[in-house]
Amino acid sequence: MSTTRTLVRGGLVITATDETHADILIEDGRIAALAAHGSTVSASWTAERTIDATDKYVIPGGVDAHTHMELPFGGTFASDDFETGTRAAAWGGTTTIVDFAVQSMGHALRDGLDAWHAKADGKCAIDYAFHMILSDVNESSLKEMDLLVEEGVTSFKLFMAYPGVFYSDDGQILRAMQRASVNGGLIMMHAENGIAIDVLVEQALARGETDPRYHGEVRKVLLEAEATHRAIQLARVAGAPLYVVHVSAEEAVAELAAARDKGLPVFGETCPQYLFLSTDNLAEPGFEGAKYVCSTPLRPREHQAALWRGLRTNDLQVVSTDHCPFCFSGQKELGRGDFSKIPNGLPGVENRMDLLHQAVVDGHISRRRWIEIACATPARMFGLYPKKGTIAPGTDADVVIYDPHTEQVISAETHHMNVDYSAYEGKRVTGRVETVLSRGEPVMEDRRFVGRAGHGVYTPRSTCQYLN
User: Fold this and answer.
1) What is the pLDDT of residues 185-216, one digit of tens each?
2) Residues 6 or more apart from 432 whose CB is under 8 A from it?
3) Distance between CA atoms of residues 253 and 434, nearest Å
4) What angle, 0 to 180 degrees and rounded to 10, lies between the N-to-C axes of helices 170-183 and 139-150?
5) Residue 253 and residue 266: Cα distance in Å, rounded?
6) Neighbour count for residue 426 (Cβ, 10 Å)
7) Where on the phi/psi map is residue 164: left (φ > 0), alpha (ψ -120 to 50), or beta?
8) How high is the pLDDT of residue 75?
9) What is the pTM for the complete model shown?
10) Which residues of the chain are modeled with pLDDT < 50?
């Protein structure tokens, strides 16, 4: 078998723990060795392909642990499928996604998982894995959880929101958590009190409050905090770990911090939209606010400081996108005259690494923390480390050459997500992905896409690596 070798020379290699001026030797899709730039060791290396990374960062490919490609929601489907969505991810420096397979009411987990495998198989430009959404907790689906964990689907998402769709009551949640405490799975929670929210939605619509901004007003901060608190207590009762997805509010962060201060295995994720957008966007005139409807909703701007602080203090560990795009034209417009019918979700898989680099430029986080929250921790949290999320001998050669100096303007005109608007339209950021390798193969070369559908492979996962 012929060996293919690639050399990456002259860059600043940044991982969650180190920054070193090093050259990297890649062999057969993996990192073979690192050596100090200019050393006799690296000078002796030869390769078929050499990438000059002078004045650039060399970082691990991003791991986006929360995406929804082709998700059915509100009578329509997310506008990115696995082909367009993973291509856009690659443009943004992400080389692994963990998407959500969905169990339908009355069906087995296996049916849902098979359906998502069929959607993704042969389509992905980058590697992918699956979480499982549990919509129907019963004796049969609880038994199936054990089987899924054994074959590398090791996390299960439950919803305290969306009654009649994904909602599970406290008894069902407790049962799933008890099962996870035995089989090693990680329960992921959408923590909003959906029963109470539905009452507020009904009341708002009855008052004629139909505009997009009311989506944020009825999904109260306190109902996110209450659900977060309740999820933590149920996890304590079950003796199970808990990962709370898309945390958006200061009061919810406080619940996580209090649990972590007690030494509980409780983890939190936030998303770029909560760090960079706010209710100001939901209140944009006309129907423009519909572009920003997602759940948990955007919050008043003053919550952003608490989220950044949570990321610095490690009360929040991961930034994922919850990428779930719906076109403004024909999809978001389903909710004209009734905000409750606007499909919930924002596009973002292409923007995450750049927005978080902007956070480094702005002084919110350090360079190593950028890599930690976007690459290393999501990989560890979901059993992909060290194969993914770092640069070290033996790891997959998922490598991004990142230009930290070039400015770009985020826009729907230039993005590659299959959606007709950008949530960050006109935002100027410093930093840009230049070249992306996935398992040693170029997917992006000097700002050109050179990848292909089907290069990305399904990646089974071990259990959460933050648990004993």
Assistant:
1) 999 999 999 999 999 999 999 999 999 999 99
2) 354, 402, 403, 406, 408, 447
3) 35
4) 30
5) 11
6) 8
7) left
8) 86
9) 0.98
10) 1
Radius of gyration of the chain from Cα atoms?
21
Within 10 angstroms of residue 214's Cβ, the number of other Cβ atoms is 22
The residue assigned the tokens 């996604």 is 97
Q: Both tokens of residue 466?
A: 């933050």
Cα 168 from Cα 133, distance rounded (Å):
11
Angle between helix axes 109-120 and 139-150 (nearest 10 degrees) is 40
Terminal CA-to-CA distance of the chain, rounded, Å?
40
Going from the C-alpha of 250 to that of each of 179, 185, 279, the distances in angstroms are 30, 28, 14
Q: What is the pLDDT of residues 289-345, one digit of tens each?
A: 999 999 999 999 999 999 999 999 999 999 999 999 999 999 999 999 999 999 999
The C-alpha atoms of residue 101 and residue 89 are separated, in whole angstroms, by 18
The 3-state secondary structure of the chain, one letter per residue: CCCCEEEEEEEEEECCCCEEEEEEEEECCEEEEEEECCCHHHHCCCCCEEEECCCCEEEECEEEEEECCCCEECCEECCCCHHHHHHHHHHCCEEEEEEEEECCCCCCHHHHHHHHHHHHCCCCCCEEEEEEECCCCCHHHHHHHHHHHHCCCCEEEEECCCCCCCECCHHHHHHHHHHHHHHCCEEEEECCCHHHHHHHHHHHHHCCCCCCHHHHHHCCHHHHHHHHHHHHHHHHHHCCCEEECCCCCHHHHHHHHHHHHCCCCEEEEECHHHHHCCHHHHCCCCCHHHHHCCCCCCCCCCHHHHHHHHHHHCCCCEECCCECCCCCCCCHHHHCCCHHHCCCCECCCCCHHHHHHHHHHCCCCCHHHHHHHHHHHHHHHCCCCCCCCCCCCCCECCEEEEEEEEEEECCCCCCCCCCCCCCCCCCEEEEEEEEEEECCEEEEECCEECCCCCCCCECCCCCCCCCC
Two tokens at 436? 């992306």
For residues 44 and 37, give the distance between their C-alpha atoms in angstroms, rounded to a whole number. Answer: 12
